[in-house]
Design a protein that fits this description.
alpha/beta; Zincin-like; 2 domains; four-stranded mixed sheet; three-stranded mixed sheet; elongated; disordered C terminus; binds zinc ion
Length: 214
């Protein structure tokens, strides 16, 4: 991403696809240079990477300026979307808590896209609940079952009979468990981990549940 490279005049020698690692403020980028594209520059998130499409014949300095402008906008919009989504999640948790869990309230409930082996976590110490963004692609009843599970930990930290009595108040709990087992028996053999002080811990900390689909 250096200016030296951008200043080189030979646009045609640049690759059609170029990956750039994450920086302190930007996620990883994939630059796609298309000969068909005339003037417009576009950017969108694909997973954690922003794919930026630019015209292949754009002068390098212009290209760099355009990339900086559109990536900055895209990151800002993504953060705003995330805050709105977190607010939705908090309202959803409050509704479920009022209905099934005597109105218990977490200190916070937020989406997390850093959870690789869990679908939810709850810190009983801080009262913070995190929900994996992986759940966004599953039915609402599955999302709600995970939220209820994590909320229940605010009342019962362990997975004992009292805990199960709480989560069973949610009428679709068994359906959701069955759905997740059927969806991916390997990865989601256990729906959630026990509560932990922190969200994810060091990589490999949840090795017992880290089986990836093969
Ligand atoms: Zn649990």
């Amino acid at each position: 991403m250096s200016r030296d490279r951008a200043a080189r005049p030979v646009a045609a020698s640049r690759p059609a696809r170029e990956r750039r690692p994450a920086t302190a403020t930007w996620p990883p980028l994939e630059i796609v240079r298309s000969a068909k594209r005339r003037r417009t520059v576009s950017a969108r998130f694909t997973g954690e990477t922003i794919v930026v499409r630019v015209p292949a014949h754009m002068p390098p300095a212009d290209e760099q300026d355009a990339i900086e402008a559109i990536v900055t906008r895209t990151v800002r919009r993504h953060r705003a979307d995330r805050r709105a989504d977190d607010a939705m999640l908090a309202r959803r948790a409050a509704r479920l808590a009022d209905r099934y869990l005597d109105g218990v309230r977490p200190r916070s409930v937020t989406w997390s896209d850093r959870m690789r082996t869990r679908l939810g976590s709850c810190s009983t110490r801080s009262g913070d609940i995190r929900i994996s963004t992986d759940l966004a692609r599953h039915p609402d009843r599955v999302l709600d079952a995970i939220i209820v599970h994590e909320l229940a930990h605010l009342i019962e930290p362990n997975h004992g009979p009292a805990f199960h009595a709480l989560v069973d108040r949610y009428p679709h709990r068994q359906w959701a468990d069955g759905y997740l087992e059927g969806f991916d028996a390997g990865r989601f053999a256990r729906v959630v981990d026990p509560p932990s002080p922190d969200d994810e811990g060091p990589p490999g900390a949840s090795a017992a549940h880290a089986t990836e689909p093969s």
